[in-house]
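Aim 2 progress. For BRCT domain-containing protein, the working sequence is reproduced below.
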Amino acid sequence: MADQEGSSLFGLCVFAFVPSGDLTDTIIDELSQSIVKYGGQVCSRKRDGSLPLATITHIVSNTIEFPQYDTSTTMMIPVVKSKWISASLAKGKQAQIRPYTPDPRMIFSDVMLSCADIPDSDKDTIIGATMAMGGMYSDHVTKLTTHICALSTDHPKVRMAMEKKHKCNIVLPHWFDDCFRLGKRIDEGPYLLPDPEILRVSPGRSIEPQQSPYLDGAISARPDYMSPPSSPNERELQLTVFNEKKIMLSKDLEMRGRLRDILASLVSKGGGQLTDNAEECDWLICRYRDTKEYILASQLGKTVGNMSWLFYLIQHNAWSNPLHRLLHYPEPRNGIPGFQDMRISVSNYGGEARIYLENLIKSAGATFTKTMKADNTHLVTARDNSEKCEAARDWNIHMVNHLWIEESYAKCEMQSLTVSKYTHFPPRTNLGEIMGQTFLDEKRLQTLYFPGGPEKTTLTLGRKRKALDMTDENSAVEGQASGASAGRPVRKEFDIMRDTEVEDVDATELPAQPNRRSTEFATPARGRHVRSGKENETPSTVPSSGRSAKDKALGRLSTMAPDIALYEKEKKARPEGRPTTGEDKEPKSEKRPAKKARPTLPEVDVRVILTGFKRWVNDKHREDADRKKLRDMGIAVVQDGQPCDYLIAPQLVRTVKFLRNLSKGAIVLSSTWVEECLDTKQVPDPDDYILKDHENEKRFGLKLETSIRRAQENNGRLLEGIPIYCTAGIKNGIESYQAIAEANSALFMVYGPKSGSTIKVTNPEDDELGPEPVYLLSTSTPEEKKLWKRFEDMARKGNMEPRVVASDWLLDVVMKQEVSFDKKYLVTNFFI
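Predicted structure tokens for this construct:
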């Protein structure tokens, strides 16, 4: 960059600064001088501390905690970190805005990524999702690179970075996967090469909990005391946060006179004043969401918080949005619907994190229990390893991480336990480190607690909603997923197993399940033999109806990833595709040949899910090429769990993917249709390729056409209300059976040696047609045989008919899409 006066780098730009702890007045003065030196202007804030939004083009802030953030987003005024100015000066041109946003929901906003020895399918998804969450990608490693995604230190990029001692993190792709799934950025430490902890340390070993900075001053909605202010000398403390603000303290606070006097004095000395009028106040401090003051102030677009929020402002002398910390906002008086009957315990969270969870559970309306018993309904845990976790498995108690309770509270309704982000536990991470990052959903709050309002405030609320929508759309994080898997599709190895027939030699069992984390990539991070070939990314076990906005956004990203990769390749291509040589240099006076127009991809017309597709087995390069050919024809191969137009299979197969999508009523085409598309580069009429497999129809005793029609009528509720248990040690694992059962709305539970009675006793007189059946999927191993009698006794005590069956019963029922039973499926008959 030419370092000269009069440069127009920031020409026509008008900046305003938002001071914070790491953006001090001294730093602001230095940056302001640089801005003016290179053609820009700097505006001062107004007397009341607000920003002159009508005249500025950029806001420089290292935080989104300032009152006009939502409004500035609505007005499309970029809000950038101070690093953006430095980066622009270093480049000699204005840097991109997106990677420098201070929005914490853009979890990779300061990541400059480069990939080393990562297979293309994984690489494309990592790059696409990282960029969607605020990061940047470069094929080359430079001093600006912050992360290199690699499987080993053998790649030239990694060796070069290590030799030159670049300050960048060399991480396994598993780190990105876990971040995508959670929708939060976790510590890279356990994933760092050359000796990543996740590969050498047992997941069961203890982990020291890390304190989340987002819990500071926000662990309780009803604080017992006010923390001392940041300044140790109260005489020197001059509160500016209250300047020219009118504050109303609601009667539902039941505040003692002495405390009210202290607060009134602090507000007055800080340039503000107290008021008893909800219409004229700027801020309302109250406890519950059902008071007249709360409803009126919220409808008028006032800032509403609770005592915990007010104490936080006093302690830090800085404004904070009460919607950004769950316990800074007034509570629902009767909790969140559905939580009243819940008994919830906590494990693996310590210190303030544990206190925060206890208070959040109580605010949601559930009962918090310090110890866990068989009558507990949920266990919230930061890891899936502890005595409580083992007991939860034995007692069929739902085990989730804190994101479930946080997002249920934020969205004002209980979130589905089938969303995989709530049951995801990275092996060497204590999830307490990402606690407290969930924002309240303002649109849901308005709908439930303060609908309507005067006409003059509609625009204000509309602007706020638009700002929130824009932020959510840009972040693609809150929403996850909320969220599939919360993000990145899981690796293909799992899908390879699921994409083979769900049978063994005797046509009775599911394929062997690999002994590995369900979140690993399709890449050889552990010295494994690399399998390549099968066509689709691993399905999430989350039904499509339960997927969050984030999951859908990241699902779309996985479809877009090939397009992103193709664009990057085209961008790098030279005109005419010629290599650069010394003879190619032309005189400056000669006119250069026009660049080729970059081809654009057609809109996606057809979305398909493939299972059992044999063309790509052991030929990864052919798979990548074929996927691009199909995409060029408007055909997108999507991952299981996403909406699709057709399910593609070579014949009737009992794979998880086939049975789950059949359960949705998907039309099944022969894989010949895809072959024809690839071979002829034309898209034939799908109706001419409806799967016909008379041999397997006879074998399974069904008509595929009839099964599809029934599935469409059942609408995923074939097994609704039917309890299906599965032995914990069943051959090939429980996950596949759970995915199939839950795709048909069954009540799926695991049954183990320590499982207690989970069947609600009914009155025999209420069963006019006899006792309802309850099923246990089992094999005939000695360990599982020991469970049969106890299961049968439990069922009979609940006035239900026990049926201990082979897993083939479930597979056949779902394939036929008709609930039926034959004694041949009883384990005592099946395994003779």
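The two ends are 81 Å apart (CA to CA). This observation will guide construct design in the next reporting period.
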